[in-house]
Amino acid sequence: MPPMSYGTYARPPLKDLVEISTLPADKVPTSASSSHRLIVIGDVHGQINELKALLDKAEYSKKRGDHIIFTGDLINKGVDSPGVVQLAMDLGASSVRGNHEDRILLAWDNENSRNILGSKAADKGGKIADLKGLSPELVDDMAEPALDGQSGTQSAEVQVARSLNKKQREWLSNLPVILKVGSLPSYGHVVVVHAGLVPDIPLESQDPWAVMHMRTLVYPAEQLRRERTKKMLEDIRSEQAGKRVSVPDEEVDRELQNSHDRGEGRADRNVALPVEGRGGKPWSEAWDENQEKLNGDIEKTTVVYGHDAKRGLNVGKFAFGLDSSCVKGGRLTAMIFEPQGGKVGHRLVSVECQMAPGEKAKANEEQRRKKRGDDEQKR
């Protein structure tokens, strides 16, 4: 029985969202005789200078037939979101829809909906009817404070949306949540997403919100078994000691392993819930384990993704995370699929990044807040 995942998130309903697209076969270097390459780039977040530097270092050549795929989050936080989007469009690049594209488009939809409601009319060039993945019910579904007075975050997102021209917004709205690249020898099926996928769930059944936001997987049955095991051990130890005793996690782990060795709990991971937080098992680890278990008749699937800047560059066997925190002064990373020694292989290329001014201001404020807290503790 395959695991199940559930879309339980409070995102407004989706309308005409492009969930899955397939990259044209002529973009994929499927043989050693191919001269063109496939360049997959992690989260840019408006860092236009770093993107240009990375393309130079990767020796990108449109004339040779190189093709670029972005893992989403081209925009927001950085210095030039319109410039990044325009460059991607000019180069004929592909991309998937990241959570920041989604948020900016939702903010734009909400802003225009408020204007339309207030004036009963809107300039034709400002309408959002051509944008996909939005909702006609958005005004009712968004929180009231967002309609009556924008929060600082939402206001900033509206500003980014306004900085984009109509064609740029439409290009972003047409980005798929999942991009099927095709088959590559030794990689199997290659798929690009922004955040992640749930193992054993068909691409067509993946929750779009989760694909754009997830970081880890939680297993409710497994968590319940752990809680019950911990309580059982603590009850036993407490009765023996004549007082309440807390059992360390290591002892719970050993007991769970013993029960697993007895054949118990094998179905505990039949239900997997993708979550945005970091409290569960990294989905990429679960993905690698799942692909390793597939029998030889089933082609493996390799996922290239971004999103998880805190975890950083993460190279697995069947999952490659490319968000190396460029916008916070880390690096901008590309994974290049290219002919190598008679087959198609890959290599990683990256460049240093300058921290975006907005991120630097947030970091400075965090340092000031921490210092104030330390000073108060010393008093």
Automatic annotation (TrEMBL):
Coiled-coil boundaries: none
A GO molecular function held by the record: phosphatase activity
Any Gene Ontology CC annotation: cytoplasm
Pfam families to which the protein is assigned, alphabetical: Metallophos
Any one Gene Ontology BP term: polyphosphate catabolic process
Bias (Basic and acidic residues) ranges: 254-269, 359-379
Signal peptide segment: none
Residues spanning the membrane: none
Name under which the protein is recorded: Metallo-dependent phosphatase-like protein
Species for this entry: Truncatella angustata
